[in-house]
Amino acid sequence: MNTQEKKKFALDNPGFTYKQLAKVFGYKNSESARQFCKRHKIPNKRVNVQSRRTELDLSLQIAMLIKNKRYNLKELSDYFDVAPRIIEDAIKELKKNNVVIDNYTDGGFQLGKDLKPIDEPVEINNSKYKEQEFCIGFVADTHLGSKYERLDVLNALYDRFEDYGVKTVYHGGNWIDGEARFNKHDIYVHGVEAQIDNFLHKYPQRKGITTHIISGDDHEGWYVQREHINIGKTLVARAEAMGRNDIVDLGYMERDIKYSTKKGSSIVRVIHAGGGSSYATSYTSQKYAESLQGGEKPQIVLVGHYHKFNYSYPREIHMIQGGCTEDQTPFMRKKKLQANLGGCVIWIKQNELGIFTSVKVEWIPFYDKKFYKYIW
After folding, report:
1. Which domain covers residue 287, as residue numbers?
2. How far apart are CA 196 and CA 176, in angstroms?
């Protein structure tokens, strides 16, 4: 057989394995037949022991294989019949594309369903000031993609932030509504890519304002658990591709912001809390403060998750719950949970020792849509 006859035979017999092709072509082994097909870009043959090559990219094949079972480097190398270095490169490519992969101490790899919070704080250098007062914005639980989202409230808050000269806004998580069994009738956009794109097209953008977002382990976190992606990094990558550079990923569940001076520092912690709401709005914040070890307390904690506004001072920690920009949903009515619509501007005075000597919280409230039909 000449080359053209081999190509025609391979194309006319898609069910043949490489071993069968090798016999027809007169090759000594199936690898020669596989190389012939690869060289001439002939669609892949039936998968067999000699070849695991399919039309899918190797990194995607690996992701499918390690979704529900742990494999080490040697096992993956043997399975796909490629060198360990090629497997390592494919896994690096997956991580580069924000796929969550758990690396086990025995050398095993498996798709991860959770993200580790980032221990290293973000540092803000205020050392050029002896004493200064600055303001930050705080929003939480925007739930874009939900039929109950309040873009009017969210945009009004950013207008107020702009008027006040706010440069940094912290977001307490649940920036999208995500997808679960119990909210499928409450959302108007489906799929992680569609939800992220919807968020980036609708989320307020104001000149000079940067929004620093923590991701919760629910709502957007459901995509981490099911699709095994780093949702925060995926958001930022997509934002940059769309030309938005005002979105910063703080990480998963919690992150410390360290405001430093020449002689000291203080910590603002942004968290997306967990659990259900309590009878007393301040109770969850109080219990969080009580649970912290001595010597590790932040000075301010910005709390998302509960859809409530509350400002309390347990254990000398300024605990601030940031409300939400989503109307009460059927799920919240079922659980008898109120939604406090609004956001915060927080004025902080810091001295040269790094101590927050003054904290003032301004709550900017809004109400349900019906309220605005009947006023002046």
Report:
1. 122-373
2. 8
